[in-house]
Write the structure tokens for this entry.
Amino acid sequence: MSFLEVIRKVIREIVVIVLLAGFLEMLLPENSLRKFIKVVMGLFIIITLLVPVVSFLAEDKTWAIRAWQYRDEGAGAMSSVFSQGQAMSADLQQATIQECESRLARQIEAMVSLVPEISKVQAVVQMKPGVAGNTWNMIERVLLRIKLAPAKEDRKENHHSESPSGPASGLGVNNAGTTPVQPVEPVKIEGLEAQIDPFTPDAVANKSLEGRAGNTRNDKELERRIKDMVANFYGVPREAIQVEFINIE
Amino acid sequence: MEILQIVGAALVVTVLILVIKPQRPELALQISLVFAILIFLFMLDKISGVIKVLEELSGRANLNKFYMATILKIIGVAYIAEFGAQVCRDAGEGAIASKVEFAAKIIIMVLAVPIIVAILDSLLKLLA
């Protein structure tokens, strides 16, 4: 018997007992025996109220809920148990994907920011939703928001980080000054590209410097190089990489 | 209107007793006793109807019939004892009337003993 049933039974008995006590009190004789009978009627009311409470407490003293007694109305069926498990698994997978996306975005930002022409970069990585039973997710889309560095800063940086291309790159950036200088063709040093690993940050910097020397502020060229870099490092199709040049504060 | 019949009969018997009592007081007492018994029997049918209604109500509420029967017995004992005590007082025997009431009190308490025991038992279970 559940607790609510006990309460319902007790309330029903209280109502009936109060009515009966009222009727019986009208039947009592008007003499010295009246008070005795009222005492006995009070005892009758007490015992009638106590019996259901005591029986409820006596049958379940430990208040323990056994597995075969427990009935969860919302999750009684086995199918709902499975669905709850699947929902928990989906939540876990979603959290994993979000963590993976944020870490990949930070990695890509760190890598792309090595390009000297770029002062700031924001990366947004979107993973493909995982197929049921498959925990491996692929990068679906990469969005890069890039702010280009000012020309003066570029020159300073290039002087500080003296690259193998050396004076040729410095001349190429020099057009921000008062005296216009004609851009020169990039000086290619034979054998240098073979020695440098193309996936190292130095190689990325060299390539960017070459681009700067050949065509200053060539966004298309910079975009192409960034896409190549991200595509090579992360195995993402170039079509899935989107580059935006914006002003990021 | 039964009450008119009862009041009419009561007035007649009262006048009769007042007439007879100076000459035959013992006969006056007997007349009074007979009238009381007649009234009691006359009302018995009505009381049984009330008791049936009460038992039906207690049955609907799943109350223990034993306790209900005990209460009704106690009420019956009280009525009978009052009747006897009044007759004794009418006869001028107040001492006997008080003894009757005393016996009625004892009987009522004896009838209430099972209820008291049940309450104690329930309280002990609750506190155990």
